[in-house]
Amino acid sequence: MRKVSLFIPCFVDQLVPQVGIDTLRVLRCAGCEVDFPQAQTCCGQPAFNTGYWDDARAVAERFLRVFRSADAVVCPSGSCTTMVRNFYPELFRGTQSSDEAASAAKRVFEFSEFMVKVLGITDVGASFPHRVAFHDACHGLRELGLKGEPRELLRRVRGLELVEMPTSEECCGFGGTFAVKFGMISASMGDTKAANAEASGAEYLASVDPSCLLHLDGILRHRKSRVRTIHLASILAQTAEVTEPGRVTAQARDVA
Length: 256
Hints:
By secondary structure, this protein is of the alpha/beta class.
């Protein structure tokens, strides 16, 4: 049995915890023994991206301590996986933690990457009778080189019709703090992505980055679109008995 430590990004914990729960379910279904370190917090990416490297380093040092003994760390976010794998070595270069950061970078995996490349599993027995389009999130595609892996998993889902939308590789416009600093540009890019999802005829827009999905969910709602957003793990966690899957959206908005 493969031992796995689950890293749930802070925004997933606070806004879309179901994504974390579904990731756990799928990993267990795949035969993994999953550990969730309670002391985990953020990977430090927001501070890193805005230039506050000292603050980012303090948060990242906690990540290194928490996951120090983990054989493999699985994360349902291409963005946060990228932070640890690609940018921790840069963040800790020349410090006493440089070797530990390099070690962590080799042991952290994005969810679909871990399923396909490490476990060698593409069929988890899921059932999801809907038309689904896939959004290639920037970090997963450009930083981690993931494109085929999530699609391999989706193609094995019973009843699912995978459709390719126009320009699936284009950025959705979220970009973390980019959406705050350049709101009009971000919204315009998201509107284009939403229109492409609608043009594909898909019922659901899936991705491996819940941050992109939160952004697109707001835009699709504003357009009064029929297209709904869902994380890859939430599709793979579905069975024939589940008829109404959860939407990737902020809980507060659902309540409202």
